[in-house]
UniProtKB/TrEMBL annotation:
Signal peptide: none
Domain HTH lacI-type: 6-60
Keywords: DNA-binding, Transcription, Transcription regulation
InterPro entries: HTH_LacI, Lambda_DNA-bd_dom_sf, Peripla_BP/Lac1_sug-bd_dom, Peripla_BP_I
Protein name in UniProt: LacI family transcriptional regulator
Organismal lineage: Bacteria, Pseudomonadati, Bacteroidota, Saprospiria, Saprospirales
Sequence intervals crossing the membrane: none
CDD domains in the cross-refs: HTH_LacI (cd01392), PBP1_LacI_sugar_binding-like (cd06267)
Taxonomic source organism: Flavilitoribacter nigricans (strain ATCC 23147 / DSM 23189 / NBRC 102662 / NCIMB 1420 / SS-2) (Lewinella nigricans)
MF-aspect GO terms: DNA-binding transcription factor activity; transcription cis-regulatory region binding
Pfam (any one): Peripla_BP_1
SMART domains membership: HTH_LACI
Length: 337
């Protein structure tokens, strides 16, 4: 037999009060005295009472839970984004459930189905890079649940968006390298199915154009956002004898792989090849040399996404869809002084 779960009625029987009084005390109703509330809380703790959030959501129409969906909770800007969301929504009594897609669109659909079954009050999503169908997101909207997209987003859903100005970040990074005298700048392009990487490519290309530097297709290379891919791309360039004096990577992880391969090949960074990444992942400041990178302000992004959700749920039908574009910051380190 399964372990018995304490109910509100058990607490009421123990204290010789009504179940409704216990419920109001647990929910900190102002009509309940401090003495009664403390007695209920102490008894609930002693009897190992755990509230049934789904049942409570069915009764009240609110679960005070927000679903946050990210590609990976321990990678790139996402730990900071999650913290920013929690910092804001906790003030209003909300808790956060985090789901991970691992950049798999099918998993994204399944996690959202789970969150909807949990009756969350809102969902905040950074799309998987391969997501190109949006029925699961439209279902969220059809059920009247607030939807906020951040970082990797799509514009045609009529949902609020919070993201970094990826174009400006890439333009600034490329311009920085040009101003350091670099003219043969490799760009490691992330998955082009994602708007964020298309915008970073556009920023790179416009910076070259502004400074009248010819665009060389040999230097514009598709590269997944991981360390091994960065290593392989740089090894291929060196093996083919392609000349280059800088690398602008669309991700810090590919930039790390590029740095490792350059060092293994005897190339000096930044003397022979300067490197700039994107994302300001925590490890970038601890490398030798530390990697210059574009900071996406993950904490600010999370806080902003949370405020958008809270505004949307509080205003209901009066809410106006918003698009918040955050300003990136170039963090200059010793890989491109």
């Amino acid at each position: 037999m399964g372990k018995y779960k304490t109910t509100i009625r058990d607490i009421a029987k123990e204290l010789n009060i009504t179940a409704s009084t216990v419920s109001r005390a647990l929910n900190k109703h102002p009509g309940i005295s401090d003495a009664t509330r403390k007695a209920v809380e102490a008894t609930a703790k002693r009897l190992h009472y755990r509230p049934n959030h789904i049942a409570a959501a069915l009764r009240s129409g609110k679960s005070y839970i927000i679903g946050v969906l990210v590609p990976s909770a321990d990678k790139s800007i996402f730990p900071s984004v999650i913290r920013g969301i929690e910092d804001e929504v906790n003030k209003d009594g909300y808790s956060v459930i985090v789901g991970q897609t691992y950049e798999n669109p099918d998993r994204e659909v399944k996690v959202i189905e789970t969150l909807l079954k949990t009756r969350v009050d809102g969902i905040v999503v950074s799309l998987a890079k391969g997501t190109n169908a949006y029925q699961h997101l439209r279902r969220i909207q059809a059920e009247g649940i607030p939807l906020v997209l951040f970082d990797n987003t799509v514009s045609d859903l009529g949902a609020s968006i919070v993201k970094t100005d990826d174009f400006l970040g890439a333009y600034t990074a490329t311009e920085h390298l040009i101003e350091r005298g670099r003219k043969r700048i490799v760009h490691l392009i992330g998955p082009r199915t994602s708007e964020i990487y298309r915008e970073r490519l556009r920023g790179y290309m416009l910076a070259l154009s502004k400074y009248e530097i010819e665009m060389d297709p040999d230097l514009m290379i598709d590269c997944p956002s991981d360390v091994q891919a960065g290593q392989e791309v740089v090894k291929g360039l060196l093996d083919r004898g392609v000349t280059f004096d800088a690398i602008f990577s669309s991700s810090d992880y590919a930039a790390l792989g590029a740095l490792q391969q350059l060092k293994m090949s005897g190339k000096k960074v930044p003397e022979e090849v300067a490197i700039v990444g994107f994302g300001n992942a925590p490890f970038t400041s601890y490398l030798d040399p530390a990697i210059t990178t574009v900071d996406q302000n993950g904490l600010q992004m999370g806080q902003c996404a949370a405020r958008v959700f809270l505004e949307q749920i509080n205003k209901g039908e009066d809410y106006i869809v918003r698009k918040h574009i955050l300003q990136p910051q170039l963090i200059i380190r010793s890989s491109s002084p």
